[in-house]
Request: fold
Amino acid sequence: MVFNSFNFIVFIIPVLLLYWIIFKRSSVLQNVFLLLASIFFYAFADWRFLILLIASILLNFYLGLKIHNAEKESKQKMFLNIGLVFNIGLLLYFKYFNFFYEGFFKALNLFGLDSNHNTLKILLPLGISFFTFQTLGYLIDVYNEEVKPNQNLLQFSVFIAFFPKILSGPIERAANLLPQIEKKRLFSYNIFTDGLRQILWGLFAKMVIAEKCAEIANPIFDNFENQSGSLLLLGAFFYAIQLYADFSGYSNMAIGVSKLFGLQLMRNFSTPFFSTNISDYWRKWHISLTTWMMDYVFTPLSFTLRGYQKKGLVISIIATFILVGFWHGANWTFVFYGLLHGIYFIPLVYSGKMNKSEIVAKGKWMPSFKELFKMLALFVLIMLTDVFFRANTVTEAFNYIASIFSYSLFKFPNELLSSSYIIGIVLIAFFTIVEWKHRERLHDFEISNYNIIFRWSSYIFIFLLILFFGKSSETFIYFQF
Amino acid sequence: MKLVFKIILSSFICLAIITFILIKFGGQVDSFYNKFTTPKVSSMIIGDSRALTGIRPTVINEKLSGQGFELPMLNYSFTIAQAPIGPLYRKSILKKLKPDTKNGLFILSISPLMLLSDRSHDNYKNEFIEADLSPHNMDFVDMNPNYEYLIKNYNSFHFKAIFRENLISQKNGWLQDNNLPKTKEDYEKRRDWWINSYSNFDKRYAFSEYRLASLDTLIKTLKKYGEVHLARLPVDPIFLPLEEKMCPGFDKLVDSLSNMNDIKYYNYKNTSDTYKTLDGAHLSKLYSGKFTESLCDSILKN
Reply:
């Protein structure tokens, strides 16, 4: 059941009515109801792994308490390690087993040890990368005494299984979400309407922008051997926008739906293409994953390697980004994607500009030429790197990029004059302008301060765009992760 | 209270826009929507996309009025993906049929493709490729505006088609395809696309005895409500060997079925010189009227 489906409308309306009318009296009632709704939501998507989710909740809840209550440091570490082995083990088995298994046999073949093998047919539980990272973060936070362990199984279960974020994030942190779950939620008109606005913008991003870009990019990628360099460049452009609109659209919907229940999830995207360097970009792209990796991988690793100074920092960044890439899937393309992003940080490390982050053209209508040039250059770099994200193999990605940089790059792509491309570009331009206008706000469609006529005209206009140009695909790119 | 009012108001605005489009442009935004908005009928054209574009109810209503048939006619044809012969299509036809019909007219346009089934499906175990598509996913087939159709088949809607008139589904079910080939090359390009599709059909689909038996059941069922006539529509000769390969001896099978049921089979497969198609497989709107007249003449003769 995805947010942009009629099934979800049928699900969410009664759930919201019951939540705010019948179950509003106490936080316990609210949490019981949210948990039941979340279990139904997850089971509706794929009931086969419900037991796994429940087992993960129970074990991590128990381990959190054990870590906190253990008197000796060694005992605390032992319980943490059990949690790490369990959670990472789940991921390794369900997501990466075949990758390593095949790699092992390929390595044997290299040494002439020919062997026949069949990969296992392992189904990937929905949302496993997201809820596993959330539980891992929780256990490490408890161990580091960053948060106190939650003593209430009901609250902890809602923290892990809360349905708007279970399938595709954001990867929530205990310090942000648990305190909200512990308290009784009071209905707020402003939060509720803001949630609706965010859902509308998410729907537009997914159903119009991402689907339109997919319609253009898919045939180019599927038949890239026979396309001109200029068309391949366009394919990479549309795919980069598709990836962003698909995932940021989903995140906006998830955060918006969550607000309808009075719970504020963390921001996951903050107009990342309006960045002037790669470090700034990653502070704005999939923020919940990036901050998770920074806190639990990069920071301890760079601390360990601090003796090596800038070299140690570079190694830490590259290792972290390889993990970021690998988190996305068991394929060398994702490893390469992460590796390249890590490498892009090297000039920043050596020039000492890694921590510079600011809103581009703050308080101004337009960026300066220098800022515009930097943004465009960064976008082209990211767009080309995204080819690894889309390709089936690393070789395919290299071939795609090599084919872009051929003489045919200077051939005008006639497709650009077709109505489909023109409509796509006009829609992307509109999307970009709205995002640029709201880059300093709390989300991309935060228009609460505009007058009522402008607001309502905007809602109707976006509704019409969805109606006329939208497609209702039931898949999101990030569902596979 | 303010929020409830605003939610109701915004829902009403959205619904009003959608309803306006469905009522005013229903035939443009979806090729099948109109079929589910008209009242139940006593006479129908049944078939795949060849019948959908090739047989015009208005011509039949004119030519056969006063002949004792319960007219008007509705073109209740769909695409080959939606409406191969089978129990699901029969069920949908019966939903759209007035139950008290006595002298209905049923023109059953039949082609070899309508007797194919996905190789991975066992029809005898109720496995049908068309199961989730319209018209089989519809409970209400005579509701205007039909929100059930919108909800269940949202992905087949093209709302921006209100700005163009390439395909217009008339209220009587006939699909008017205005996108005619401009040159011979254009025609050949479209025809080649179909040839390519046919070769893919061949890999994925195979002749189904079950569907043939269903055709017999459909004929027998419809005969209870009136006269049944079978027709095979004109196609470019290039398709005929391909169709023979997919369903060997198709004409003989249909001939024996029509003899068994004492009904007529009009085979127009070799008449594409007289009745021209726009892509090799579908009659052009410029010839569909003439073809329907000829079909009516054949019915009158018998």
User: Anything to note?
Assistant: Chain A has a mean pLDDT of 92. The radius of gyration of chain A is 23 Å.
